[in-house]
Design brief:
With about 90 residues, the protein is an all-alpha fold. It has one domain (about 1-65). It has four helices and no strands. It has helices spanning about 5-15, 20-30, 35-45, 50-65. Helix 1 packs across helix 4 and helix 3 (about 35-45) packs across helix 4. The radius of gyration is 13 Å and the shape is globular.
Length: about 90
């Protein structure tokens, strides 16, 4: 599954876009320095997200919307169309 597909599935499950999660993250005082395990536990407890989906959000929290070029245009399971993830939600495409 691509990074974008993970984010889209999170939105479908929770009703929240990645940008909305970034607002919640900031309100909780989390940021790039927050340990991934702490964020994953919060996402599990409050939104019932599994580890894979939570780690996709952790990537965005820690690194922003850019992903490695190695995932762009490949034939692998993590193939994305671009190296910049859409954080504004499915409806905005």
């Amino acid at each position: 599954m691509s990074f974008q597909a993970y984010l889209d599935n999170i939105e479908k499950k929770t009703g929240k876009t990645p940008n909305e999660f970034l607002v919640l993250v900031k309100a909780r005082g989390y940021g790039a320095e927050t340990r991934a395990g702490e964020i994953v536990a919060w996402l599990k407890d409050d939104f019932d997200l599994g580890r894979g989906h939570a780690m996709a959000l952790v990537h965005v929290i820690k690194n922003g919307p850019e992903i490695s070029e190695k995932h762009v245009g490949t034939d692998g399971v993590h193939r994305d169309e671009t190296n910049v993830l859409r954080l504004d939600g499915i409806a905005n495409r």
